[in-house]
Design brief:
Elements lengths: L1 E8 L5 E4 L1 H7 L8 E8 L4 E7 L4 H13 L15 H11 L2 E7 L2 E2 L5 E7 L7 E10 L3
Antiparallel strand pairs: 1-8, 2-7, 3-5, 3-8, 4-7, 5-6
Length: 141
C-alpha cells in the first residue's frame, strides 16, 4: 500500500524544531503498516530536515550555532537579492538535506530512543513550509 499527503507547517522562527509528532498526526495510515518506509521531503531550498537528539533542547541551540559558523551571513556571497540570510540558508539546506527516510514497523516510526525529526528553518522569516509525506508498506508480512 502507498499513501501520500502534504503537511503544511506553520511559520517557525529560525532554528531547529522537532516535528515528529506533527508528522505522525498527519499520517493516521501509519497504524495500518506492519512493515514499511516513510519518506519525508521538504519543498523548499532554504530549510531542511534532519534526524537528531530529541531530549535535550541544548542540542537545538548548539546545532543552530554550529550551522551559523559554517555558513556565515557576512561571507561575500554573490546571490544577495533575497536578503542576507537567504544564501546562507541555501548552503545550510544543501549540507543538511531535503529528505529523510524512516523505517516503519507495527505502525510506529523506528526512530532511536533519543531521535526526533527536525525542521531546520534557516531563514529569519521563512514562512509556512510544505512537506510531502510518502508512506509505503505492507499491512501484513
Amino acid at each position: 500500500m502507498w499513501y501520500q499527503t502534504e503537511l503544511t507547517l506553520p511559520e517557525f522562527r529560525r532554528g531547529f524544531h522537532l516535528i515528529t509528532d506533527r508528522v505522525r498526526e498527519a499520517l493516521p495510515q501509519l497504524e495500518e503498516v506492519e512493515i514499511g518506509l516513510l519518506h519525508v521531503h521538504i519543498m523548499h531550498t532554504s530549510a531542511s530536515l534532519t534526524i537528531n537528539e530529541n531530549a535535550d533542547p541544548d542540542v537545538q541551540t548548539d546545532l543552530e550555532m554550529a550551522m551559523n559558523k559554517i555558513a556565515r551571513e557576512d561571507f561575500p556571497y554573490v546571490h544577495t537579492v533575497e536578503g542576507s540570510d537567504d544564501m546562507p540558508a541555501h548552503v545550510k539546506a544543501a549540507l543538511i538535506g531535503s529528505s529523510l527516510t524512516v523505517p516503519v514497523r507495527e505502525g510506529k516510526l523506528l526512530l532511536g530512543t533519543w531521535q526526533g525529526i527536525y525542521l531546520c528553518e534557516h531563514r529569519n522569516h521563512g514562512g509556512k513550509r510544505r512537506l510531502i509525506l510518502t508512506l509505503q508498506g505492507a499491512s501484513e508480512i
